[in-house]
Amino acid sequence: MTEASPYVVLVTGPSAGVGKSTLATNLAVYLKALDEELPVAYASLEPDADVDAMFRLGKQPEYSLFDLQRNIPFVELFTLGQFGVEYCAAVNVGQQSETSQSLRKGLAQADFPGVLILDAAGDSPFLPAALAAVDLLLVPVKDPAALPEIVRLQKGLLAAAGERQQLWLLPSQLGAASRYQPSAALTEFLRFAAQERGFQVLEGQFSADSRVAELAVKFAKPVLTRVPQSALHQQLKQLAELLLDQRQRQTSFSVRVRRMLLDGLLPPRARRIALSCPLCKCPALSGEVHYLEAFPARRRMLLHRDCVTALLVGTAAAAFHGEPGLTLVQSGTLFGGGTGQLRLQVLAEDLELLNTEMVEVTETSVWHGLIQTATGRCLAEIYRELVVYSEPVAVSELLSDAWYRDFVARRGALRQACREEKI
Ligand SMILES: [Zn+2]
After folding, report:
1. Which H, E and C letters describe 310-352, residue by residue?
2. CA of 286 to the centre of ligand 1 (A)
């Protein structure tokens, strides 16, 4: 689900003349230069903007991003352009967003595992739809007078189920001349505003440079190919690296889950389950996962199949991994072992006991983190806690009511057998 939908970056300027489109289009080019394998798409939400100047390679793209509403598949909206960037036509004046969530829903279901860069003015009618879908919001700022507009943007982001950490201010001297010139004072002001309002500010400042303006911006050509010796080249590279880092660390994952629940793209039961795998700390919303419950803490979580494969290396339980059934994990001390041991039992679908073993947990073992996250206690402290996990199942099936009813029945029988000390 989420891993195949685009990571959405919105570049929007609260006021004219901050070089917003220069930043947005160049960012797409730099991302591709940093990671050739990463699919990168660019969409302008500026009515009738000239997107061909930067990207056109062959025929002009026919659709704009908001043609998603007409059920045109996401990938068909885009045309391969220069520098390997996929781009679509700018929105046209007559187009409108159906609701502020319609773009988000369309993007959540798009099969595009890369980055989508959106370019929209601060007063664009498409801004609410873009804010509702955004993972990372980049706001170039030139003038302290823009602060009320930035505060409005932040409010719009929070109202769209977003979080403060998604917004970054980019001190910029690019674009048309401003009344406000002293750059050192701007940076100082932005740092002050950041402390006061909780804004994150990018280090450094996108500097205006006459060669950049003459050789690249004037012709809407990339800084990367036209002026690679400029300071702006390094700054754009840093910005692209920041973006890749935020995407890699999945800093907007909780926002995505909240929005998917709001949009009905996840079943309500997902609210009660931790959707990040405790073994690798990454989202577990695609592929096959194990469902884990711990008692008495009643914690519920998902584990990636591959992470469990790695966890079981060297155990006899590894031979049964993937078979339908439950695995029961308990403290070894209950069964005559030491505090550094866990007892692992593999049970078949009908709860027939397939294997029992004591596992020696070394100091560096990932079992420690798993036990801590599942039970709320460290390995040495657990005694009567039960940790049960299921066979690996596709996430969509696992979150269904039917699958959970079956799990609850099996879990009930297992706990009964434990109480009666049958296993
Ligand atoms: Zn994992």
Report:
1. HHCCCCHHHHHCCCCEEEEEEEHHHHCCCCCEEEEEEEECCCC
2. 11
